[in-house]
Amino acid sequence: MEFDTKLIHGGISEDEFTGATSIPIYMASTFHQNKIGESKYEYSRSGNPTREAVEKLIADLEDGTAGFAFSSGSAAINTVFSLFSVGDHIIVGNDVYGGTFRLIDAVLKRFGMTFTVVDTRDLQAVEQAITPQTKAVYLETPTNPLLRVTDIAAIASLAKKHALLSIIDNTFASPYIQKPLNMGVDIVLHSASKYLGGHSDVIAGLVVTKEPDLGEQIGYLQNAIGSILAPQESWLLQRGMKTLGLRMRAHLHNAEAIFDYLNQQPLVNKIYYPGDPENADYAIAKKQMNGFGAMISFELQPGLDPRLFVEKLQVITLAESLGALESLVEVPAIMTHGAIPRETRLKNGITDELIRLSVGVEDITDLLADLAQAFQGIAE
Ligand SMILES: *Cc1c(COP(=O)(O)O)cnc(C)c1O
After folding, report:
1. What fold does the segment set 3-241 form as a domain?
2. Which CATH number fits domain 244-379: 3.40.50.2300, 3.90.1150.10, 3.90.70.10, 3.90.550.10?
3. Of 20, 22, 50, 79, whose CB is crowded by the most CB atoms within 10 A?
4. CA nearest ligand 1 atom 2, residue
5. Reported pTM
6. pLDDT tens readout for residues 277-327
7. C-beta of residue 43 within 8 angstroms of C-beta of residue 29
8. Ligand 1 centroid, distance to 19 Cα (angstroms)
9. What's the rounded Cα separation, in Å, for the pair 206 and 41?
10. Separation of alpha carbons 314 and 371, rounded Å
């Protein structure tokens, strides 16, 4: 089945009992057991039909064998990290999501896990960071907000060589753009609050595995920890996911046009976009991504105030988050990445002038006109 057909007919696409083409919201905590131990569902933390539908769907979309839905992307990440124990060492990409960094730094370190932060584009640096205690490599590609791209297949094979798990947060790409399990990665996870949900109306997380033992371990942890996605949210997430293909094509079309526009705009100093042929990661992006994503970051010329620019935008919404129908803009230095000390932030390339744009699906004419009036406004 092709990807767009899977979105509609993949997973469990109709209700077993009524034939309803939209899986009902099963608001039940427990289920009648005709014979002890023989029922399909027992208790909704362990399994719920509405949640199961979205779990089977994401497993299909990522070409995995088991999917798991959580109350947030952060809950999904925490559950995956619960595979590890005191003394275990994990190599982490150097610009992972701020909340992931906070979880590692403020919580997991207290449980005796250790972490080394590495630019995962540098395979030698990753290999050098491996110790006898290393159990996994965890990364995002493209990254936030500089959209750096790591060679997924190369990392997966390096991990295999050293018997490490490879874990990828696929939030910024979505399975429309890349399927890491097919490149040898062990665990893929998502903040489904972004492209998968797609409508800025649900907080959810998803995990997918291919190897059955690993799937069983994640399932065990999901039930043991209990940060599951509720039936209503599971339904809403599946409803949003059905249009992922339609939305992604519109996102990609608009992103390309905005990149071309920014490229011609003299008030722009630098653009970060994996589809820029001058970008250092372009060849890898072209190799492993189906389209370059719809996130674009750019720097204004030195001295120009990014606050003034984003506040002048009228169609493009000033807000955190990404992957929504509506175009969203933010200033990482004072918003999403404001908690990082300025020196570290600058060292990582996140300047005060940087602006991050999540390109939405509005008519491109309006988006370009909005950008043009904001540039004109700050030039005056
Ligand atoms: C938003 C986000 C998360 C966290 O997900 P929540 O659903 O907000 O908990 C994790 N990783 C990435 C890349 C994100 O963008």
Report:
1. Aspartate Aminotransferase; domain 2 (3.40.640)
2. 3.90.1150.10
3. 50
4. 191
5. 0.97
6. 999 999 999 999 999 999 999 999 998 999 999 999 999 999 999 999 999
7. yes
8. 34
9. 20
10. 9
